[in-house]
Amino acid sequence: MNSDEKEDCECAPLQAETSPAEGTHREYEEPEIENPEASRMKRAAAKHLIERYYHQLTEGCGNESCSNSWCASSVGFNRMDNNAAAVKALELYKVNAKLCDPHPSKKVTAPAHLESSAHSNSACSNSQLNHKDSHSVRDNFKDVNYLTEEKVYEILDICGEQEDYSPLIRVIGRVFSSAEGLVQSFRRSKPHTKEELKLGEGSSGENEVQRLSPDELSVDIDAVRRVYERLLSNEKIEAAFLNALVYLSPNVECDLTYHNVYSRDQNYLNLFVIVMENSNLHSPEYLEIALPQFCKAMSKLPLPAQAKLAGLWSHYSAEQIRRMVETFQQLITYKVISNEFNSRNLVNDDDAVVASTKCLKIVYYANVLGGDLDMEHNEDEDEEPIPESSELTLQELLGEERRNKKGPRVDPLETELGIRTNDCRKPLISFEEFVNEPLNEVLEMDKDYTFFKVETENKFSFMTCPFILNAVTKNLGLYYDNRIRMYSERRITVLYSLVQGQQLNPYLRLKVRRDHIIDDALVRLEMIAMENPADLKKQLYVEFEGEQGVDEGGVSKEFFQLVVEEIFNPDIGMFRYDEHTKMFWFNPSSYENEGQYTLIGIVLGLAIYNNCILDVHFPMVVYRKLMGKKGTFRDLAVANPVLHQSLKELMEYEGSVEEDMMITFQISHTDLFGNPLMHNLRENGDKIPVTNENRKEFVAQYAEYMLNKSVEKQFKAFRRGFHMVTNESPLKYLFRPEEIELLICGSRNLDFLALEETTEYDGGYNRDSRIIKEFWETLHSFGEEQKRFFLQFTTGTDRAPVGGLGKLKMIIAKNGPDTDRLPTSHTCFNVLLLPEYSCREKLKERLLKAITYAKGFGML
């Protein structure tokens, strides 16, 4: 056979001769020694079965009367998205679930690699039979090393006429498996001449590309989308994309890792844009090899390239962003479900999961950039730096130099882009869509936190990508950080006492009288804040004078509750209570000094630091201000809805504002005693009328005064106290404002059914004990207030922790036989000591009395 005949029999370029499945399996076979052929066949069979389950879940068998509950053709089947179908297909394969045979009325869809193989064989035979007809066609496309939309359509039309798509498959295989070819493809350029289109020759495209700004790319994204839409409908051609991606990705990874290719040609990003436009990336065929390899390559992009890619994708629509998010999320979920991760086999060591998480970060910041940004209204930094510990010199001598001196950690991509997550008021798609629950379930947070603190290149920490973690997981990471800092302060204190010969005091001890809790606590905290702020980072230990309770956490919980009740008492006048919103706001005319507000900030910080939940009711703007963002008109919707509605009507008024409303840039509000106070929003504001032209400025300045200027002194003191405790914490790095509120206040939703599911039993009780069944029946029959009393009695707070009551580990222990004694509790450990009462009525009566009149601590 001569060389021309050999070429005619080829149906794809040499790089793409093997099917995706075969090619990828061979990569795994190379290191194997024992029976590689059997291993390959086993994997191929498993992959084929999983694909059949997937198609059964998404397309069905075609039999309208199918009785298989896991078939899309069966009556009552609940449709699922591709991500859920892929996970379910894997589960069905593991349990060997029923597979439907295709109904005669439905054409069987063969897997892509089989289709490609069958097509290759038929194309070979066709080429031999029609040698003279096809040889000239193929010769025309030999030199096509990059593609344009017009060239693709030309080849497609010719292949359609010949009923032979092998020339197009060859071209796709050649171009999409070559980084250089893909970078040059689909450029935004002047139209090609007919001669250039016919010959596929001419310049490489460099000279034709339009002058673009640094933020733009030279790829024509709309053209890429139109081409994919035409080609992906043909399953034979789709296999060529898959095959090419398998060969492309390792070369791209090598280019980025060792050859610094992006610095030489920023258009190298084109290939990532083109590949990510493939709407089939999330399909099962890609999840095994192609997509993980591509993610690994993309994760090697340098920081400027990641920022540029995020900037480009920020112009995409919400649906396009969501498609990319689902692609990476499905790969993460697939890898998590198909592997057994544990403390010995960490998910942090899985290259595919780590790489796809890094890629997801780029999309996350594109989502932030493309959302509703507020870059202007930022709180001023504290004028006075937070004082360092007096122990600093000793720490340096001992090699314990304090970390994060320059402030909290900041994501490098945030710095490169010049934005923060908190700058985004409303992203393109919700932040919750970036959370991957299966990953959170298998993540060993103690190990992940260690990697986060050590910051080595060898170990990846998911805490560096907090968007993928839920609030429960992040709270656990914060808990480890706080505890380690407490132990560090304790160790330093011990060493300090040995060197200086001073009294050992490893805890932040507060001894208070229940009737004078504010005076005792705040005076003591004020002394500590002035003398040695580092003591605030020690573990809190509270003792109520005259009571025997030992603080293992429960006494601190009650301490915080009593302090909050006193501080937010309207009679004190530090905060104003809004009957309409049921929330508190800083009193701008308070007679208390700034030090009192600083101490309240310290209390809030201590609550987070010691993992205690507070019953505070602030509007969300307070937490945004704590995270560095000023309040704006939009925040008034929650903080002061009546004022917000009035100003909104002013903005929308269609008549003459000046003539009809007769308002000026002077506003009035009342102090704590109801006395009117006047304030000019501008100089001589009482003489400046509000008009249709300046009303927007009036509304902005009104909101600025109410939320920022009027309470500036009070809030700055409050924030300063909060940062005294949390300044070295990863709090700002991990949490968004709404999550900070959840962290401080807990969840308002009380699901006692979830609590029942997670409760454990001790001392002879179990789930089936008579008294336990009667206990839960009684508790479920309580009203909302009585249920909160029960939580307060058992756990020390009437709020659910982050994640809900299902995350609360409560224990019910037997406390003797039937008796007249009341139930008791250990709030430090969430333990309820319950005697075995003789009947349900007695149980209810004793329990209600215990939770209603419980106050104080004693030794049992």
Automatic annotation (TrEMBL):
Keyword Ion transport: no
Residue numbers spanned by region Disordered: 1-39, 107-135, 187-210
PROSITE patterns: HECT (PS50237)
Biological processes annotated in GO: animal organ development; nuclear receptor-mediated steroid hormone signaling pathway; positive regulation of macromolecule metabolic process; protein K48-linked ubiquitination; regulation of circadian rhythm; regulation of primary metabolic process; rhythmic process; system development
Reactions catalysed, as given in the entry: S-ubiquitinyl-[E2 ubiquitin-conjugating enzyme]-L-cysteine + [acceptor protein]-L-lysine = [E2 ubiquitin-conjugating enzyme]-L-cysteine + N(6)-ubiquitinyl-[acceptor protein]-L-lysine
Active site: C828 (glycyl thioester intermediate)
Pathway info: Protein modification; protein ubiquitination
Gene Ontology cellular component list: cytosol; nucleus; proteasome complex
Annotated ranges, domain HECT: 532-860
Keywords attached to this entry: Biological rhythms, Cytoplasm, Ligase, Metal-binding, Nucleus, Phosphoprotein, Proteasome, Transferase, Ubl conjugation pathway, Zinc, Zinc-finger
Bias type Low complexity, positions: 117-127
UniProt subcellular location: Cytoplasm; Nucleus
Keyword Amino-acid biosynthesis in record: no
InterPro entries: AZUL (IPR032353), AZUL_sf (IPR042556), E3A/B/C-like (IPR044611), HECT_dom (IPR000569), Hect_E3_ubiquitin_ligase (IPR035983), UBE3A (IPR017134)
Listed GO MF terms: ligase activity; ubiquitin protein ligase activity; zinc ion binding
SMART domains: HECTc
Highest taxon, organism lineage: Eukaryota
Compositional bias annotation for Acidic residues: 1-10
Gene3D superfamilies for this protein: Hect, E3 ligase catalytic domain (3.30.2410.10), Hect, E3 ligase catalytic domains (3.90.1750.10), Ubiquitin-protein ligase E3A, N-terminal zinc-binding domain (AZUL) (6.10.130.10)
EC number: 2.3.2.26
Role noted for this protein: E3 ubiquitin-protein ligase which accepts ubiquitin from an E2 ubiquitin-conjugating enzyme in the form of a thioester and transfers it to its substrates.
Protein name: Ubiquitin-protein ligase E3A
Taxonomic placement: Eukaryota, Metazoa, Chordata, Craniata, Vertebrata
